[in-house]
Write a structure and sequence with these properties.
Blueprint (H helix, E strand, L loop, with lengths): L9 H14 L4 H5 L12 E4 L2 E4 L1
Antiparallel strand pairs: 1-2
């Protein structure tokens, strides 16, 4: 999937961050070690100056 070069707001940046987690399968290392998928939490962080959005 193609990502926009510059997101418009923190919500959009967070959405892109969470999509990146899924696309790159960052949980693969944990599942390979036997950690059940339901125990893995995925968080995206978006920063704009001192403003932060975590989702």
């Amino acid at each position: 999937m193609r990502h926009p070069k510059k997101e418009k707001n923190l919500e959009e940046t967070l959405k892109v961050a969470l999509l990146q987690i899924e696309e790159n399968k960052y949980d693969g290392i944990l599942t390979a070690k036997g950690i059940p998928t339901e125990r893995i939490r995925k968080y995206g962080f978006a920063f704009e100056g001192k403003n932060v959005l975590i989702g």
